[in-house]
Amino acid sequence: MCPMAKAATESPDNPGNPHRIPKRWTLPGHAPCHNWGMETELLTLRKLARVLQPLGVTAAWLEAEALAGRLPCLRVPRGRQRQRLLFNAEAVKAALAQRAAGGVE
């Protein structure tokens, strides 16, 4: 059992039900969850290219920058020499803004 769930079951305001997370631990508009901060959606290369299309960024450029290590991405193995690149759109936008401001060459 994870520490958060264990704490929920031992909490004084949660008598007797090990599967109920106390209401004070839930976020407004969200289902009860102890994985806070894990709601970030990861986008594939094509989806990210569509999101960044207004900036004039192509999928080929994004892939080259990610493989060179200049854009944040998650590399997921898919086979012998293939890999899938997954991106957090907000992190990529922040990296591009930093580059535009002259923070990174």
Helices and strands in order:
Layout: H1 3-10, E1 43-44, H2 45-51, H3 59-67, E2 74-77, E3 83-87, H4 89-100
Antiparallel strand pairs: 1-3, 2-3
Number of domains: 2
Shape: globular
How many DSSP E strands? 3
Relative helix content: 25-40%
Order of helices and strands: HEHHEEH
Number of helices: 4
Could you tell me the strand content as a percent range?
Answer: 5-15%
Main β-sheet description: 3 strands, antiparallel
Task: Please sum up the structure shown.
This protein is an alpha+beta fold and 105 residues long. The protein has helices at 3-10, 45-51, 59-67, 89-100; strands at residues 43-44, 74-77, 83-87.
Give an overview of the whole structure.
- The chain is α+β, with helices and mostly antiparallel strands and 105 residues long.
- The chain has two domains: 1-39, no CATH class; 43-100, no CATH class.
- It is 34% helix and 10% strand.
- The protein is built from four helices and three strands; from the N terminus they run H-E-H-H-E-E-H.
- The protein has helices at 3-10, 45-51, 59-67, 89-100, and strands at residues 43-44, 74-77, 83-87.
- A three-stranded antiparallel β-sheet has the order 1-3-2.
- Strand 2 (74-77) and strand 3 form a beta hairpin.
- It is globular and about 40 Å long.
- The mean pLDDT is 75.
